[in-house]
Amino acid sequence: MLRRLVELFGPYKRQVVLYVVAIAFVSVGDGVFTLLGKAFVDDAIGGRDTAALTRIAIAYGSLILFQSVSVWAMIRFAGTLGESIGYSLRRRAFAHLQRLSLDFYDRTAVGRIVSRLTSDTERVTELMSWGLLDVGWSVLNIGAALVFMLVIDWRLGLIVLGVVPPLVYAAVRFRSHIVDQFRRVRALHARITGTLNEAVTGVRVIKSLARENTNNTEFSALTGSLRDRAYRAAYLSAMFLPAVQLITSLALGAVVVLSGIDTNLGGDRISVGSVQAFFGYVTFMLWPIQEMARVFAEMQQSLASGERIFSLLDTPVLVQDLPGASERPLPHAALSFDRVTFRYPSTPAAAPPVLDDFSLRVEPGETVALVGPTGGGKSTIVSLIARFYEPTAGAIRVGSPSTDYRAFSQRAWQARLGMVLQSPHLFSGTIRENIRYGRLDATDAELEAAARLTGADEFISALADGYSSEVGEGGTLLSVGQKQLVSLTRAVLVEPDIFILDEATSSIDSLSELHVQRSIEQLMEGRMSFVIAHRLSTVRRADRILVIDGGRVVESGTHHELLATDGRYRRLYSNAAAPSAEVTDSLGP
Amino acid sequence: MSDHAAATRTTLALRDARGVSALWRALDDTRVGYVVAVALLAVALAARSATFLLLRTFVDEVLVASAAGPVPDALVRTWTTAVAFVALATVLALLTLIADALAARAAETTAQRIRDGLHAHLLRLPFAYHDAASTGDLVQRASSDVDSVRRTLHKHTIGVGRVVLIFAVNVATLWALSPTLMLVSLPGVPLNVLLSFLFHRRISDSYEAMQAQDARMTTVLQENASGVRVVKAFARQQHEIEKFDTENRARRQRALHLVGLHAGFWPASDLIGGTQMLVGLVVGATMAIDGTISVGTFVAYSGLIVWIIWPLRELGRLVVEVSKGAVSADRIGAVLRSDPELLDESADEQAAPISGEVSYDRVTLRYPGTAEDASPVLDQVSFRCRAGEVIALLGHTGSGKTSVVNLLPRFYEYQGGSIRLDDRPLESIPKHLLRQQIGTVDQEPLLFSASVRDNITYGVARSVSDDEVEAAAEAAAIHDVIAELPDGYQTIVGERGVTLSGGQRQRVTIARTVLRAPAILILDDSTSSVDIQTESRIWAALQQLMEGRTTFIIAHRVQSLMRADQILVMAKGRVVQRGTHAQLLATGGLYRKLYQLQVGAPS
Ligand SMILES: Nc1ncnc2c1ncn2[C@@H]1O[C@H](COP(=O)(O)OP(=O)(O)OP(=O)(O)O)[C@@H](O)[C@H]1O
Ligand SMILES: Nc1ncnc2c1ncn2[C@@H]1O[C@H](COP(=O)(O)OP(=O)(O)OP(=O)(O)O)[C@@H](O)[C@H]1O
Ligand SMILES: [Mg+2]
Ligand SMILES: [Mg+2]
User: Fold this and answer.
1) Structural domain harbouring B467
2) Before A401, cis peptide (omega within 30)?
3) C-alpha torsion sign, points B435, B437, B442, B447
């Protein structure tokens, strides 16, 4: 863990060195200031020496200039280092997120993912830039101060030396305790943010259920315990500084006593300047001690954040290209499920698989319709084709001699799919941007041609801003059917080898659907297509209809063949058609 | 419920006031603790200054004096000094602790009030507001901006009080030591204050720019993660990586700008402070050499001067922090300034049950934000129905079906015509009451990442028995499916219910509405992802619930709605046909065409 954090410095070795040097300069410089203060008292005032005063003043002035430059460098390097590391961590994590397969997204809330790349990254880079700076500065500062004190007067120095290490130790221990409190605060915080996120995403549901009051009460309970915890943590941490101050004041008291006794006994007299310097050093030492304790204590949290980021980076990618996966375009060949068994990675291994020993062969150019009861596994089948997931056992093969579809890179494979998902998702932005997502280099004319083909053009051109209309987050500004039309257009624009339409027209009226169907049929000509629908008018014209139930093909055939056999399909269909008989009767001849 | 009232006052303060005054007013009654804290700090700081005077006396009367000859009670004085020293430190420590605790209490209490008030406000903002807003942005305001305000109240505002006091007390002490020394120690002050104000503007602008960029980057991330299936389906990973990288890079750029400002500010302020210190020390030393001041005075002075220079530089930082807090308060205020819906929750008691007679009279609707001259979404829509009837809507995509039913619970405000419920103007019925009695199954089912049971019981305030939950699930034809899930009703569905199939999600939301048993039922395309057999099971089960309840059904499958008492066929925001199934079939037109298409009859 620590090693991996240190590795992050890798590309910035030179900066790290400069940064450490700057810190060293600043902390030693701070100590020298106090030393010069002593010189003011002992050499200039004590010796009544104006020439010495000038010399000391010049030294002091140069030190100020030197310090300014060092401080500038220190902030500059710490900041640059932090931002560079943060940038590259986020970049790496995002790239990994793009590789991760859907099982990860099934079990990870979006909010979690976001906080990995925002607050967790922030905390790690904070530790590695400002945190290290503070610790480095503190350690060097205390070290330099101790050395100077020992040089000035070794007995007083030893007193302070006796106090400092235990003080630092106690401070760190106490701080850790405080940090533990803050960790709980943070956990509550995360829950509150999660709740807020759900409240905003689900606000329409909450409002329509008139559930505001209940939500407010639940939320208040959370914020109430946050307040209490946060107060406790704040109180504990407010004890910290005064406690340290109190202990150092004991050390100062000792300095007073010792110097008084010394003077009195006429022994090895301590100069006034030295007493002053001791006061200066010890008083100032509060800050480095405090900083050090803070950083060490927060380090646990930052390390935990680091751990979370690395665990994201280490999350195995379930769907992986086989070594030497080809980028070749897909062959115009049959696709077959070869005894595929599939269980969602998120479900327990003991649960029955969604697909069990499932076999299917689809010829090139064939249009296959999948129908059947909900939860039967239709979407699962097409998710496997799209390689959102891969079979738990068995294989999906292409062509003959058949090759495992994993022999193609995911990119090559997925780039050739035109897919409409069951829940149409649009990105915030304009309609044009959303359609263009299908083919980034498409011209406006191509894009609009695709929209005309699906019939989306009709409603888009009626909008005030046409193709430049914003769709709103997730497409809320459009009706559901319009969203489906846009996502359909997006898929059409791909001019894919394989069409996958998962209830792509379920919220579209039958007339528009007919229009869509007719135009898409031309497009589907010669391409393999999978169509899932519950409306029989959607699936009737498919080359082959498969009735899927419980993860198996229970019936298969054309519309007419299936109607001829007394099975599920006929029952569904006749059920659907029955009222027509009834009504036709009532209408009379 | 004084907590609630306080939360309201705090949100009002943030809504009405700007900047720092908003922060101050948001403190509300916790201000008392705040003021006491500052007063205690003043005493504490006086105690600290006293230690310097103590030091001076010790140096002059013990250390220096004994150089000239033995001081009679030197030992006693030494001990007294040491003890007094520790005693003063104790006072300082205790008072600081109490002051900090008081400030923390005030800040945490206020933060809670803001959180609660903002949350309540978010839930009250109308649909139209949420349509235009971005989730990430709202959540950021409600979490990190609130936190920034909290931090400002806890540390920074009181910090300003602290440094001003430190400065004042020490200037006074200095005056007591030597007025000349005091005067030579001050010229740097205005310079440093000026510097920090100059920088504070730029730093807070730069900070704001970085926050804004951070938000943009987060939005890309959030959109990417929520649309991951689309990203993968179109193999757009590289495109997304580039998009993110652009924002990530810009964020780094902004952050580095901020670092640059800090790197400019601190050394500059050090330079001024250092020079000031040097001047003071040189003058002090010269005076001590002349004998104008004692050595003890000089020692005390060199200890004190840090406490004059440090506060000013700290003041710069604090002013920046406070202004960040004020920016956050404004960002929260911006949300609060948007008008919420009036829900009239208090009206619950006099609630007369709604019987469900509905009439729309030439209702016209335009969504907010659409152009005035664009054709309206609903154009003169009229219909009426008796209590307990079933009204079906069907028609083209985007013809306004959802919009029609969304007006009934008053999710949106319409512009023309009138809607009456139970022969009362819709507007006369409190929204809260109205929504309690109307149950909507949304066109796009949304589940929360909680257990299936919690999702079903989400809409009812009372505690519900397992039997009731199961009965509702039966009615939605989903009980068997749930029973087979790994943990049954306790199974957690993924975010937005991703681990369920489309039809399963839809049925869980149906069960959610069934359990509420509302007076008016709205089913918006709620069986679109359900196969026909399951659908007829649902309808059969719902029949019982629909008995005596006015029900609106939107569907594209004619089979789903042909039993309705009245069918409205919509096109382009108008009702183009109306009647029963039989009447409409006889009339011909759009309805018959749709019907024939669906049953496969030749057209
Ligand atoms: N991501 C997932 N993780 C775990 N289980 C899942 C996931 N997606 C679907 N399931 C389960 O797998 C089964 C098959 O779901 P699938 O979505 O394939 O059904 P479907 O036939 O498409 O149904 P519908 O017609 O309702 O869309 C269901 O029982 C569902 O609960
Ligand atoms: N929140 C909104 N803000 C702005 N415009 C909207 C909003 N919701 C819908 N619209 C627009 O209003 C029109 C009617 O939409 P509505 O959702 O009522 O259609 P619908 O008949 O329900 O269609 P569908 O069958 O596709 O669900 C559409 O053109 C749509 O783009
Ligand atoms: Mg499905
Ligand atoms: Mg709709």
Assistant:
1) 444-517
2) yes
3) positive
Whole-number Å distance, alpha carbon B79 to ligand 4 midpoint, is: 86
The answer to whether residues B469 and B585 belong to one domain is no
Q: Is residue A124 part of a domain?
A: yes
Query: Which numbered ligand comes closest to the C-alpha of B404?
Result: 2
Tell me, what CATH number does B558's domain have? 3.40.50.300
Same domain, B566 and B451: no
Residue A139 burial (CB count, 10 A)? 16
Does A379 contact ligand 1 (Cβ within 6 A)? yes
Token pair for residue B162? Answer: 């602290």
Q: What is the pLDDT of residue B158?
A: 80
Residue-range definition of the domain harbouring residue A388: 325-414+543-589
Two tokens, residue A113: 């993912």
* Assembly ipTM: 0.84
Number of domains, chain A = 2
Burial class of residue B168 in the structure, from the number of CB atoms within 10 Å of its CB (0-12 exposed, 13-18 middle, 19+ buried): middle
Task: Confirm whether B262 is domain-assigned.
Answer: no
Separation CA A164–CA A157 (nearest Å): 10
Per-residue pLDDT tens over the stretch B559-603: 788 888 999 999 888 999 999 888 888 888 888 888 887 776 554
The verdict on B510 and B526 lying in the same domain is no
Give the domain-ending residue among A313, A345, A379.
Answer: A313
| Length of chain B (residues) | 603
C-alpha to C-alpha distance for B222 and B252, rounded to whole angstroms = 19
With a CB cutoff of 8 Å and minimum separation 6, the contacts of B369 are B128, B131, B132
DSSP letters of A378-428? HHHHHHHHTTSS--SEEEEEETTTTEEGGGB-HHHHHTTEEEE-SS----S
Sign for the pseudo-dihedral over CA of B552, B558, B560, B563:
positive
Using an 8 Å CB-CB cutoff, list chain A residues near B446. 201-202, 204-205
Sign of CA dihedral B256, B260, B263, B266: negative
Q: What is the DSSP string of B134-191?
A: -HHHHHHIIIIIHHHHHHIIIIIHHHHHHHHHHHHHHHHHHHHH-HHHHHHTSTHHHH
Rounded distance, CA A548 to CA A373, Å?
7
Contact A389, A103 (CB under 8 A): yes
Write out residues with Cβ below 6 Å of ligand 2: A 476-482, 507; B 131, 367, 370, 377, 397-403, 443
Residue type, B346: S
Q: What's the confidence (pLDDT) of residue A586?
A: 31
Residue identifier of the C-alpha nearest atom 8 of ligand 2? A477
Q: Confirm if A82 and A126 have CB atoms less than 8 A apart.
A: yes
Mean per-residue pLDDT, B289-297: 85
How far apart CA B453 and CA B466 sit, in angstroms, is: 9
Nearest Cα to Cα of residue B316 among B410, B204, B232, B407: B204
Q: Which of B100, B108, B233 sits opposite A230 (nearest CB)?
A: B108
Each residue's pLDDT tens digit, A528-546? 889 998 877 778 888 899 9
Q: Is there a single domain that holds both residue A130 and residue A224?
A: yes
